[in-house]
């Protein structure tokens, strides 16, 4: 009797399991198909990052704007540094090892009526980039005497911080210029006749008698 019950259970359950497994396979297949179809409709791809390295770049070889001159070739491709250097915009891909090139270019001049004249070749100096690295756009040589260079931030920073604090205290009329490290008036206005603009008070003031005499 027990064997009959087991056989009966198997007979009843097996079709259900087969249907469930088939339904699961169908659902997975349908889900995968829908994902593929959705991606195809959107048409997106996952981009690869552009590493900082030498890559072929087009270089113009024309040395003249004279349209009667024909350069052979007019351009070529030379390895130049290219690629991404972070998201902050303070660095760029720069060459650290280069090889000088001297390119010989054939030049012909059009004389009209299908006549050409071969001119002496022109030599174009170029560089092939061998090795690249991400470096600061702003260099230490770009700093003025009132600035110090921060290699971590790739920028020149003003050293006269006390003057900056005083300038920031008068932020309604003045603003701090980090390029010149000086306090500037927010608005440089044109003054009426007999008045001159004062860069200290940031306002038009009556000209002094001494200035009138000196003019």
Identify the notable features of this structure and list them briefly.
215 residues; alpha+beta; Cystine Knot Cytokines, subunit B; two-stranded antiparallel sheet
CATH superfamily of the domain at 53-136: Cystine-knot cytokines
Query: How many extended strands?
Result: 11
| Structural shape | extended
The end-to-end span amounts to: 128 Å
CATH class of the domain at 53-136: Mainly Beta
Q: How big a fraction of the residues is strand? A: 35-45%
Question: How many helix segments?
Answer: 3
Structural class: alpha+beta
Which strand order spans the largest sheet, edge to edge or round the barrel? 2-4-5
What is Rg?
37 Å
Compose a concise summary of this entry.
Residues 1-22 form the signal peptide. The protein has helices spanning 2-42, 161-169, 209-214; strands spanning 53-60, 69-72, 75-82, 91-112, 115-136, 147-150, 155-158, 174-177, 182-185, 195-198, 203-206.
Q: What can you see in these coordinates?
A:
Residues 1-13 have low confidence and may be disordered. The protein has helices at 2-42, 161-169, 209-214; strands spanning 53-60, 69-72, 75-82, 91-112, 115-136, 147-150, 155-158, 174-177, 182-185, 195-198, 203-206. Among the domains are: 53-136, Ribbon (Cystine Knot Cytokines, subunit B); 160-211. The protein is extended, with a radius of gyration of 37 Å. The chain is α+β, with helices and mostly antiparallel strands and 215 residues long. It is built from three helices and eleven strands. It has a three-stranded antiparallel sheet, with no helix packed on it. Strands 1-3 form a two-stranded antiparallel ribbon. Keywords: Signal. InterPro entries: Cystine-knot_cytokine, PDGF/VEGF_dom. Residues 1-22 form the signal peptide. One of its GO terms (molecular function) is growth factor activity.
